[in-house]
Amino acid sequence: MKVLIVDDSSTTREMERGILAQLGCSQDEILDAASGEEGLNKVTSFDPDLVLVDGKMRDMDGVAFVRTIRGNGFTKPIMMVSSECERQRVLDAVQAGASDFVVKPFTPDLLSQRIEDLMGRPEQQPLI
Question: What pLDDT was estimated at residue 124?
């Protein structure tokens, strides 16, 4: 499974890499980006099976990132991982095309379970 991690926090990217490794992803199956713009540049060439995206980044928020890649035809699962968990923020993410939403801080077990659940979910089944 190829995964693109888009988060401006290097600590979060490393934590997510570790969790993905525990799920069986090799390091060459994981690519990361430190900004939304960098993530947009990598999503097409890398063609990930899953995207993990931060909800709030300096250059572009997660909702704008999700809306942009969905608008460009990306149909695979996108999990937004954000410390902003207000109901409207979650709704905005889902309406933009996020497949799932996980609140920071998260435990490794929680994120692992949500990734496993998401990747086992039928492709077009909505989150809510």
Answer: 47
Cβ–Cβ under 8 Å, residues 127 and 114: no
Output the average pLDDT for the chain: 93
**Rounded to whole angstroms, how far apart are CA atoms 20 and 26?**
8
Q: CA-to-CA distance for 29 and 46, rounded, in angstroms?
A: 9
First to last CA, the chain: 25
* 3-state per-residue secondary structure call for the chain: CCEEEECCCHHHHHHHHHHHHHCCCCHHHEEEECCHHHHHHHHHHHCCCEEEEECCCCCCCHHHHHHHHHHCCCCCCEEEEECCCCHHHHHHHHHHCCCEEEECCCCHHHHHHHHHHHHHCCCCCCCC
89 Cβ neighbours under 8 A, 6+ residues apart: 55, 63, 82
Q: Which domains does the chain have, with CATH numbers?
A: 3-120 (3.40.50.2300)
